[in-house]
Amino acid sequence: MSVELVGVTKRFGKVVALDKVSVRVERGEFFTFLGPSGCGKTTTLRIIAGLEVPDEGRVFMNGQDITGLPPYKRNVAMVPQNYALWPHMTVFENVAYGLRVRGVPKDKIRERIREVLELVKLEGLEDRYPAQLSGGQQQRVALARALVVQPRVLLLDEPLSNLDARLRIEMREELKRIQKTTGITVIYVTHDQEEAMVLSDRIAVMNSGKVIEVGRPEDLYRRPRTLFTATFMGKYNILEGKVVQLTREVVIVESRGQRILGTIPLEGAELRPGDEVYLVFRPHSGSIDPKGKESNEFSGEISATSYLGERVEARVKTRHGELLFYLPPRTRVVRKMPIKLYVSAEDILVYPKKPGNLYSVSHANGAVNTS
To answer: What gap in Å lies between CA 37 and CA 134, rounded to an integer?
Structure first.
């Protein structure tokens, strides 16, 4: 089932939780709303579920306007962040609850519960109570309870946030498997960028009640159209400078006495010599060897390193301040060691510096040149 929001606005007193949100989720898609806390993700989910009514705009499912329909007529199921399991009910009773409310015959209830517990790999745990289950098992019970009523759309609100790191990774794989097995449309909410990229067919990046941009995970990470997305999706380095020259292939920017070659990620964006800009590039873009004639050299000395198994994270003190680079795991680097790293023009994204074009809610992930 497809889901579409058109111009949806929601206010709570003077707070605008959603501001003219328009987005379409295709049938059978795993679609994620991603953004910082308080950006409107959960409100969006609750409006789709019918638990909140928009002040403006419409909600459609398969082209039908359902804005005024109550939740029980929408054929959607929602798994909240805290799972909301009944502590005095067994796994079987928790999962069966929605079917009993719908008046499903007992024999059919047992058949459906057997199928759904097999799907979420909880066979044999029917008689246990929530307190006797691990966090991952409780999450699966909540998922089974949502799936057993055979909804057309499954809504998941930060379902993995209460799990430890290992379980989160396991449950990501399970969620993706279940979604592909059932073919159900899934709309997911999270603030975790990695989680969103692993699970999603497409992602809507949100901030301050607005959808900033929508795209495939790889596009949002490698070629984000907006500065906010570039600095929200993963770690980054960010510099400031002024445009010196533009050619068909690259933008030449002067930053702290160095001319840097970059590219404009947004087609049709207009820049002129003298314009102030931000330059953003990922830590993995750096290489010890030059990347052709359009490589940018960043020289400095190692200020700190962290060995993470699959890579070495190196902070390099340069004329632009401290920059973060990922190096191959066997790279031998020590503190105060001089180093030269190269980043291609294709990997340095140039964004206009203008009012309202704030690059992130925090600078914690990157180096900032404030010259």
So the answer is: 27
What DSSP element (H or E) covers 40? none
User: What is the rounded distance in angstroms from the CA atom of residue 224 to the CA atom of residue 202?
Assistant: 13
Indicate the DSSP class of residue 213: E
Say how far apart CA 338 and CA 321 lie, in whole Å.
Answer: 15
Q: Would you state the pLDDT for residue 213?
A: 96
**Neighbouring residues of 111: CB distance < 8 A, sequence distance ≥ 6:** none
As beta bridge partners, residue 368 has 238
Tokens coding 220: 């949002």
Instruction: Please provide the DSSP assignment of 280-324 as one string.
Output: EE-GGG-BSS--STTEEEEEEEEEEEEE-SS-EEEEEEETTEEEE
d(CA 92, CA 138): 12
Residues 143/120, Cβ–Cβ less than 8 Å? yes
- CB-CB contact of 153 with 60 (8 Å): no
∠ CA 261-267-269, nearest 5°, is 75
Q: How far apart are the first and last CA of the chain?
A: 51
Nearest-angstrom CA–CA distance, 40 and 165: 25
> Are residues 8 and 22 in contact, defined by beta-carbon separation less than 8 angstroms?
yes
- Judge whether 282 and 348 are in contact, CB under 8 Å: no
CB 286 within 8 A of CB 342: yes
Which residues pair with residue 349 across a beta bridge?
A: 263, 280
Secondary structure element (H or E) that encloses residue 156, with its range: strand 153-157
Binning pLDDT at 50, 70 and 90, where does residue 294 land? Answer: confident
Q: Is the pLDDT of residue 219 over 60?
A: yes
Residue 371: predicted pLDDT? 33
CB 238 within 8 A of CB 260: no
- Angle between the N-to-C axes of helices 106-119 and 135-147, in degrees from 0 to 180, rounded to the nearest 10: 130
Distances (CA, A) of 47 to 76, 231, 275: 12, 28, 41
pTM of this structure: 0.89
What pLDDT is attached to residue 84? Answer: 86
| Nearby residues of 105 by Cβ (< 8 Å), 6 or more positions away | none
pLDDT tens for 36-71 read 999 999 999 999 999 999 999 999 999 999 999 999
